[in-house]
Amino acid sequence: MRKKLDHIGIAVRDLESSLSFYMKILDATLIDRYTSTAKGVESEIAIIDLDGERIELLSPTNNTTSPIARFIKQKGKGVHHIAYKVENLDDAIIDLKAKGIRVLEDSLRTNKHGRRLIYLNPADTEGTIIEYCDYPSLKI
To answer: Which PANTHER family would you find in this protein's record (predicted)?
Structure first.
């Protein structure tokens, strides 16, 4: 199955400071900024473009239940996940399971941009948080 890097998610404590760095120092462009109150997300998200590549800056909005808050508490700020775009998320999930890779079923969702996504179990990915995603209206 064909995969392509979609974006890198970075956990940050202070979204304003992080945006300032990426935009002023690295010349990134802000694409969108929004707050997700969805269970298992609970974060403020800034999507930036850096010379054609996407980065998601993720800042927790609930320090008790946000997975980003837990990540920062355990590992500190920094790269949270790497997302790979696949042609068909449903087929990719079947393929992963056939290869013995577990997915975090409760993470399956569609975000506000129409991206369907699911996270792979980090216990099966050498500890790296990996997201698979597709854009049903687009082909890669």
So the answer is: METHYLMALONYL-COA EPIMERASE, METHYLMALONYL-COA EPIMERASE, MITOCHONDRIAL
